[in-house]
């Protein structure tokens, strides 16, 4: 968390990183496996609001990734690839 401005009307900028336990990714360069992470950012005059915005942003990215993965998996299964 960082302060964007100073004083009584200061704005806090927050960055949150979350990971999904069921989403393992392989690094294309090193070949190492690890958990996929998703980040979100938020800014507000209230630290709590800033943090919640960042967390919701990260959750939205996670949900979008899971939805896209499910759609691609269904398409591959329909094509007989899986």
TrEMBL record:
Keywords from UniProt, A to Z, are:
Transferase
Q: Name one GO biological process term.
A: L-leucine biosynthetic process
Q: Which domain of life is it from?
A: Eukaryota
As one GO molecular function, the record gives: 2-isopropylmalate synthase activity
Entry annotated with the keyword Transferase: yes
Spell out the Pfam families in the cross-references: LeuA_dimer
Stored Gene3D superfamilies: 3.30.160.270
Give the 2-isopropylmalate synthase LeuA allosteric (dimerisation) domain ranges.
Answer: 2-62
Give the residues annotated as coiled coil: none
Please identify the protein, giving its name as recorded: 2-isopropylmalate synthase LeuA allosteric (dimerisation) domain-containing protein
Organism lineage reads as: Eukaryota, Viridiplantae, Streptophyta, Embryophyta, Tracheophyta
């Amino acid at each position: 968390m960082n302060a964007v401005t100073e004083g009584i009307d200061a704005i806090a900028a927050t960055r949150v990183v979350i990971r999904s336990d069921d989403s393992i990714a392989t690094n294309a360069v090193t070949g190492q496996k690890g958990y996929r992470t998703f980040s979100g950012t938020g800014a507000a005059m209230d630290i709590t609001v800033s943090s919640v915005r960042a967390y919701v942003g990260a959750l939205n990215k996670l949900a979008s990734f899971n939805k896209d993965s499910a759609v691609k998996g269904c398409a591959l299964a329909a094509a007989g690839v899986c």
